[in-house]
Amino acid sequence: MMRVLGFINNSFNGLQKHKGIAKIKFKANPLGFNQFRSRGLSDSKFFNGNDTVLPVLIVGAGPVGLVLSILLTKLGVKCAVLEKGKSFSKHPQAHFINNRTMEVFRKIDGLAEEIQRSQPPVELWRKFIYCTSLSGSILGSVDHMQPQDFEKIVSPISVAHFSQYKLTASLLKQLEDLSFHIHTSEAFEGLNHRPLKGQEILMGHECVSIDANGQCVDVTVAFLKEGKYMEKNIQCNILVGADGAGSTIRKLVGIDLRGEKDMQKLVSVHFLSRDLGQYLINERPGMLFFIFNTEAIGVLVAHDLKQGEFVLQMPFYPPQQNIEDFSPEICKKLIFKLVGRELSDIDVIDIKPWVMHAEVAEKFVCNDNRIILAGDAAHQFPPAGGFGMNTGIQDAHNLAWKIASVVKGIAPSSILETYETERKPIAIFNTALSVQNFRAAMSVPAALGLDPTIANSVHQVINSGVGSVLPSGLQRAILDGIFTIGRAQLSEHLLNESHPLGSMRLAKLRHIFEEGKSLQLQFPAEDLGFRYRKGALILESDSVLGAPELPSGRRRDYAPSADPGSRLPHMNVKVLSNLSNQEICSTLDLVSGDKVEFLLIIAPVEESYHLAHAAFKLAKEFEVSAKVCVLWSAGTKGIEEGSNAVLTPWENYIDVVEVKRSSTSPSWWDICQMTDKGAILVRPDEHIAWRAKSRVVGDPIMEMKRVFSAILGVDSTKR
């Protein structure tokens, strides 16, 4: 339910309050986009080989920044991470990990498996429950898991429920295994006197200015050491802003956001209660609890019922209300009202206000492709559907191989422009879907006679209309009075089957649930089926791209597609070798996560073998790795010998055979809606770069030259 809220992380209070830093921020803020006078840089100068210049600097050590640093390091790219917080937040924040993100995590050694082992059992979080209190009447419940979600037909892995701070800890362990070191400004000696070497995370360091005028990006960072304000200059070739919704990087380069601001203000209360967790396990397990009664209204996110870890979300209406109105003691009383009884062991950990936005940055890439935005810095969604963190991690997955291609000289810096070309439309679509899902969530209180739009309109009138001239105490009294009248709609006297109005409202509520019109958790069609329609890919000459389908706001099943720009469909295959233990894996596992490598999938057909030879030859010419997968149907003649005789002298190939679920299951080429004379070229991020549906027309050498040239943005005549 919760999204990444980097802009409300209070862990850097010491630096925030320092007078010097305030001055620096004031000085830095005017450094708008128009003041950047970046020269046009040739690609030969993009990476000048100077050891004092870091190839990639990532600002923000949230999940997006950490995942990007892992992927880049695995691809052999030196990088370092700056984080303004002195420590990592323990607030649960985001918690739903969708299918595609779990597939990305399968590329990070053991991470997906660790999440699956550590998350709560799915039976404890598959439902959303709507009730008058946690111990009162249940108004309805929605089970968001369907049988096919566990059958691994369309994906080798399922969705997960795993709090963000736990994910952060797992990512840090991965980075530790990759020889990363975490440094604080207090403990790290000599930071101000040496360049960053890479494989470092600097805590308590805030970016305060950027200069992209030269042949690299000069970043000034501020930190406190022994109570003294200090600055350091860091030079990098590429700067990635993954620093959350309030992104300093985005503000410094002057990129605006477009969309809907201030959709709703809320207060988030993080608390522990094993008593409540055990009660819900026994009586009504679920992930989200929407609670409506005459005394309080709120949404409870059960992050871990066994550990008794919860976050309560409540509407917040400043300035008539202020955060001091939500002291730990007041929050406890509100929680008791929502639970329906007192709890013996409640422990309020943290209370934070936050604002829901639905906005996308105007640009994701700027300053000669040297400064890039990712995650919440580039897009902010309502938490409905959990698209925030997931979209950000998928940004990182799209971006990592492109940065590595530039660093290693495989592609010019212009390939980084395709990151924006591909990811911005996805961000815009996910924004619309999240807003639509949020509106669906609001349909439930509206059916009960609590239309949130009325409350927001009243609040707006008090703030900016005639109510604004009234004394603040009277404004608050009016607001509280209106809310009390509204909550009276939820009284047991009114909200029951015997009362005509109550019966009508309950019937309307049942209809919303039965029709799938309430808040949804899973969107398989959008989760796995999103497609890049332009970028580092080649569309088929006969393809006609209509307008992308608008989000429906309801769950739709994913339909596998091998169209260019789509994620490679999943199918289990068996690796053929001389070993008696024949490995079974997913087609997605055939794509390397450790190098920039393209995968060509073909059938054991003569003309496709000619194409494979051409792909190897041209990949060598373009100085990029290529791997060929020969995909056999079960029982095909010659399967025992494999492809050695026809692919020699090339060695980077693999023979695999389909593993069908049943004799009636479609073949690989049927799933892809292609013939076995076709071919598919897959990018390092598992998206399809090019395909020939039935056969390659013309000279395979010329076709592969055209393909690699277009995807990498390289002029083949200058190779």
From TrEMBL:
GO terms for biological process: ubiquinone biosynthetic process. It comes from the Eukaryota. Pfam families: FAD_binding_3 (PF01494), Rng_hyd_C (PF21274). Keywords: FAD, Flavoprotein. GO terms for molecular function: FAD binding; oxidoreductase activity, acting on paired donors, with incorporation or reduction of molecular oxygen, NAD(P)H as one donor, and incorporation of one atom of oxygen. Residues 55-427 form the FAD-binding domain. The keyword Ribonucleoprotein does not apply. This is FAD-binding domain-containing protein. It comes from Quercus rubra (Northern red oak).
